[in-house]
Amino acid sequence: MSFQRRQLLQILSYAFGAGFMLSRNESAMAAQNPTQPANPVPPAKAVAKHVSTGTEREKVAGIGGLFFRAHDPDALGLWYLQHLGIELTPTKEDSPVWQQEAGPTVFSPFPEKTGYFGDPHKLWMVNFRVHDLDKMAAQLRTAGIEVKVDPQTYPNGRFAHLHDPEGNPIELWQPS
Q1: How far is the first Cα of the chain from the last one, in angstroms, to the nearest whole number?
Q2: pLDDT of residue 71
Q3: Alpha carbons within 13 A on the beta-carbon side of 156
Q4: What pLDDT sits at residue 44?
Q5: pLDDT of residue 52
Q6: 166 and 77 Cβ atoms separated by less than 8 Å
Q7: pTM of the prediction?
Q8: What is the DSSP string of 30-54?
Q9: Interacting residues of 161 by C-beta distance below 8 A, sequence separation 6+
Q10: Which chain regions cross the lipid bilayer (predicted)?
Q11: Half-sphere CA count of 21, side-chain side, radius 13 A
Q12: What does the alpha-carbon distance between residue 4 and residue 114 come to, in Å, rounded to a whole number?
C-alpha cells in the first residue's frame, strides 16, 4: 500500500450519513414513529470559522442519504438489506429507516484516474464501518460473495473490499 494512501486512511474513513432525506410530511411521520430510536445526543451547531474573514459560516451536519443509479434498484436494494443490513428509504409510515452508529465520515474526492475503486467506469465507492471484519467477511462468503480482506493492519484499522451485484465497489473498515 502506498504511503500516500496509508497517510490518507490514517486521517480519513469512509462512512455515510445520519439518515435519509425525507420530505416534511415523511419526516414528521418518522418523528412520530415509536419504532424509531430517539437521538440521545443533540447535533452540534453546524458552524465553522470562515478562513479568510474569521466570521462564522453555516456548514452541513452530515450526509442525509446516498442516492445512485442501478440497473435493478429493487434487487440491489434487497441485496444491501440481506447482506449488509441496510434498510432502504421507507415507503410507509411504519417502515424502518437505516440508523447508523455515530462515527467518522469522510468526504474525499479521489483522482479521476485512481485504480483504487477497480473498474474505471465506477465513479464512487462507499466505505462501511463494521465491528468485526472477520465475522462480516465470513458471513458474506457464506452467502457466496467474494471478499478480499487486506492482511495488513494499519494504525487506523483493518479493511476489506467487495462489490455489490452491479459491480459497485464497497470497502469495509474495522476501526482500531
Answers
A1: 18
A2: 96
A3: 15
A4: 53
A5: 67
A6: no
A7: 0.69
A8: HHH-TTSPP-SSPPPP-EEE-TTT-
A9: 147, 148, 150, 169, 170, 171, 172
A10: none
A11: 8
A12: 13
Q: What is the reported pLDDT for 67?
A: 87
**Environment class of 77 (CB within 10 Å of its CB; exposed 0-12, middle 13-18, buried 19+):** middle
Comparing CA positions, the residue from 93, 89, 88, 91 lying closest to residue 78 is 88
Contact 176, 156 (CB under 8 A): yes
Task: Write down all domains in the chain, each with its CATH number in brackets.
Answer: 3-32+49-175 (3.10.180.10)
Residue 111 confidence (pLDDT) = 94
Helix (H) or strand (E) holding 142, with range, is helix 133-142
pLDDT given at position 49: 60
For the record, the C-alpha cell of 117 comes out as 475503486
Residue closest to 126 by CA, chosen among 105, 154, 102: 105
Residue whose C-alpha is closest to residue 22's, from 102, 105, 90: 90
Averaged in consecutive runs of 10 residues, what is the pLDDT profile of the chain (176 residues)? 41 32 34 40 54 79 86 96 93 88 87 91 93 97 98 94 97 93
Q: Which residues, at least 6 apart from 126, have a Cβ–Cβ distance to it below 8 Å? A: 14, 16, 66, 168, 169, 170, 171
